[in-house]
Amino acid sequence: MKKCFSLMAAILLVQLQLLMASAAIPLLQPATGLAASLTQTLSPQSLLSQSYYQNSCPAAEGIIHQKMQAWFLKDSTLAASIIRLHFHDCAIRGCDASILLNYKGSERRAFASKTLRGFEIIDDIKSELERRCPKTVSCADILTAAARDATVLLGGPFWEIPFGRKDGRISLATEADMVPQGRENVTALIDFFQARGLTILDLVVLSGSHTIGRSSCYSILHRLANYKGTGKPDPTLDIKYLKNLTRQCKWSSDMVHLDVTTPKTFDTQFYNNLGAKKGLLSTDQELFSDPRTSPFVSMFATQQELFSSQFAASMVNLGNILVKTPPGGSEIRVNCNYVNPRRSYANPQRKYSRP
Ligand code: HEM
Ligand SMILES: *[C@@H]1O[C@H](CO)[C@@H](O)[C@H](O)[C@H]1NC(C)=O
Ligand SMILES: *[C@@H]1O[C@H](CO)[C@@H](O)[C@H](O)[C@H]1NC(C)=O
Question: Which residues make up the binding site for substrate (predicted)?
């Protein structure tokens, strides 16, 4: 077990050095704190730290990594699903594990959450962490680290994670349905990202996660026939690819690969597909034609190293979206599916009645 850990640390270290070696690339940008209207982002630097669990739970990252690896060996498709789950968490109320709360009307029960997967992995990791370090590691931090480990398992880059997120106590399905679902225009995508302190560059590079994973046919049905009321399919869809998709999509619940060329490799082929009219989602395809996003698309299409380092930097930005919560509004959840039962706040009068 010890040996296994030091081997892992060595691998991670090598990858970290690779990441640092490419850190001179000018595009790397610090986490932005752009005025956020929907979510009030806090400066993550003041709240999060890479050594957050160093004393309270030094084994945390190792446990998360081991569990992710075991799940990945059983079902490698779960890695993409965990990355997407992390995006859906951070996109609504910041990275606070609000997507994991499981009751009627919660984000997880929203329409936009229907094809989210991987919840059982987070539960599994959490129960092991509760055994080893009770009430210490937040569900939001677990999901953040799991998404990083999923990326590495898929052959993508490694990055260091700032820890210390808290779990939220509010989760609303209506808010989860605000996450882009594949039919938006580029302006809507840019606005959505910018409202969360993320840039156009973050948008294009993080959309590169669609180099792996799958989509339900539901998300592309609007492209296959009568696109935007024209009575014809989407003209920006390659004819052969269109035929392929029409054949594969018998039901809206059928699944198709997001990257038709190299569906299981974490590479830049996704961007090359866009140039060949083979983007699956219309939101991805439009990144190629819109002048605000196309320069980044052509850049990543040809520069794998640049893609890797910027993906890592932008994932840190995504994971650093934090939202101001009222006092007592956040906690370290004991079970990621439910908020902790309240005790100390049961009698607020008592708390404030002292002279
Ligand atoms: C830019 C806006 C985005 C849009 C419109 C979008 C849309 C979608 C859609 C429609 C699907 C398929 C859902 C289904 O029908 O089953 C999907 C899957 C996926 N998305 Fe995105 N997405 C966006 C951004 C992101 C970001 C920022 C990430 C990660 C950082 C991400 C990671 C993924 C992954 C990995 C999958 C595959 C999931 C699986 O195989 O289970 N997406 N996305
Ligand atoms: C983009 O979508 C928004 C709604 O999400 C709409 O208000 C706007 O008019 C659209 N812009 C274009 C250029 O179609
Ligand atoms: C069509 O789908 C098959 C697999 O079903 C794939 O091998 C082929 O490359 C696809 N062709 C196009 C043009 O996308």
Answer: 180
Residue 14 domain-assigned? no
> How many beta carbons lie within 10 A of that of residue 106, not counting itself?
21
Pair 158, 107 in one domain:
yes
* Residues 38 and 132 placed together within one structural domain of the fold: yes
CA of 35 to the centre of ligand 3 (A): 44
Atom of ligand 3 nearest to the CA of 261: 9
Per the structure, how many domains does the chain have?
A: 2
pTM reported for the whole predicted model: 0.88
The pLDDT tens digits for 340-355 are 998 755 444 444 433 3
Q: Quick one: pLDDT at residue 25?
A: 35
- Distance from Cα 255 to the centre of ligand 3, integer Å: 14
Are 219 and 166 part of one and the same domain?
no
- pLDDT tens, 91-107? 999 999 999 999 999 99
Please check whether residue 78 lies inside any domain of the structure: yes
DSSP string, 317-342: HHHT--B---TTSEE--SSTTSPPPP
Residues 66 and 192 in one domain: no
Distance, CA of 264 to CA of 280 (rounded, Å): 15
- On the question of pLDDT at 339 being above 80, the answer is yes
Which residue's C-alpha comes closest to atom 7 of ligand 2? 188
Burial zone of 184 (CB within 10 Å; 0-12 exposed, 13-18 middle, 19+ buried) = middle
Domain that holds residue 132: 29-179+317-331
Which residue of 178, 179, 183, 187 sits with most ligand 2 atoms within 8 Å of its CB, as the best mutation to test the pocket?
187
| H or E segment and range at residue 22 | none
Give catalytic residues, as residue numbers. Answer: 88
CATH no. for residue 40? Answer: 1.10.520.10
Whether residue 44 is found in the same domain as residue 171: yes
Ligand 3: atom nearest CA of 240 is: 13
Question: Once rounded to an integer, what is the mean pLDDT over residues 285-305?
Answer: 98
> Residue 187 CA: which ligand 2 atom is closest?
1
